[in-house]
């Protein structure tokens, strides 16, 4: 199997794992010894020999996947790694792999805070590495814009997953049954606190909503060919549910009992929701409920695959039953 194929399959299986919690087979592919691509032009080589010739001309030596991941996870590198956009996406999936054991391995229970901190720090270092590449932008104007957009979406999902266990819901998505999925919404466990981890997750969640609005996903008939390649909405489901619960909890507190940053997030949520054309009856509901309706609308308007339409229906049903 060629390196290109191995990397592509790894990302595909990683996406399945992040979407449906299929960790049992998503991570069975070992790419530790594979070299990460150093330049995007490598992946346009017309033949294996052209690919090898291109690699030989690169001034910086290639780095193995396992080495890059170890540097990011340990923080022992002298300076941020310089990775291609696709190489960054591969290593991010490697970090996310560690999330699969966060709430399912008994041996991790006693060391959960330390494990969360390690992954959170790794995500911060990954972002620094990714942004070393000047073409790391989630825009259709850039050749690798889709990869960058999907990577940042997975990055935001990872931060949110540090604050809760969404496995029951993700596993239920495989049924594609609205009632079954809706029932599992009550099984998710989300930990809301004033910790830095939770505040970072809230920022990531509202950023996910803001990006979808900028991309026009909150408007009917806005889908383009570029949108059909995005996994953005697939990864943003946790962001929706987490932010709704986080907003509900924060709204029950007095302004003086919240940090200035938490108040800033609530203000940003209010301003972001004002940009969405929600039904007046929905717009009069608490922000925590409006958020779920907003995401339902986004899934509905960007239903490039059947699963999006199902999730839109699930979220609307869930929002309809939330107490104001």
UniProtKB/TrEMBL annotation:
Domain of life: Eukaryota
Descriptive protein name: Transcription factor domain-containing protein
Organism classification: Eukaryota, Fungi, Dikarya, Ascomycota, Pezizomycotina
């Amino acid at each position: 199997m060629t390196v290109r194929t191995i990397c592509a399959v790894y990302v595909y299986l990683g996406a399945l794992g992040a979407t449906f919690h299929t960790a049992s087979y998503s991570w069975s592919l070992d790419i530790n010894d594979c070299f990460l691509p150093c330049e995007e032009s490598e992946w346009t080589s017309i033949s294996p020999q052209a690919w090898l010739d291109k690699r030989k001309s690169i001034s910086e030596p290639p780095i193995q996947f396992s080495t890059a991941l170890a540097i990011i996870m340990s923080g022992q590198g002298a300076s941020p790694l310089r990775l291609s956009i696709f190489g960054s996406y591969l290593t991010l999936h490697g970090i996310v792999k560690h999330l699969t054991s966060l709430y399912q391995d008994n041996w991790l229970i006693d060391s959960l805070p330390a494990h969360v901190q390690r992954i959170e720090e790794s995500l911060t270092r990954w972002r620094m590495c990714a942004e070393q590449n000047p073409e790391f932008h989630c825009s259709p104007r850039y050749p690798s814009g889709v990869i960058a957009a999907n990577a940042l979406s997975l990055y935001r999902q990872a931060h949110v997953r540090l604050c809760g266990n969404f496995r029951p819901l993700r596993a239920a998505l495989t049924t594609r049954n609205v009632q079954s999925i809706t029932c599992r919404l009550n099984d998710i466990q989300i930990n809301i606190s004033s910790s830095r981890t939770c505040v970072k997750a809230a920022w990531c969640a509202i950023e996910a909503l803001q990006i979808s609005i900028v991309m026009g996903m909150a408007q009917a008939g806005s889908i383009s060919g570029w949108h059909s390649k995005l996994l953005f909405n697939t990864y943003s489901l946790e962001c929706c549910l987490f932010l709704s619960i986080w907003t509900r909890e924060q709204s029950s507190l007095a302004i003086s009992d919240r940090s200035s940053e938490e108040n800033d997030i609530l203000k940003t949520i209010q301003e972001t929701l004002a940009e969405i054309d929600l039904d007046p009856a929905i717009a009069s509901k608490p922000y925590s409920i409006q958020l779920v309706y907003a995401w339902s609308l986004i899934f509905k308007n960007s239903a490039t695959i059947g699963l999006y339409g199902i999730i839109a229906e699930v979220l609307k049903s869930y929002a309809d039953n939330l107490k104001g």
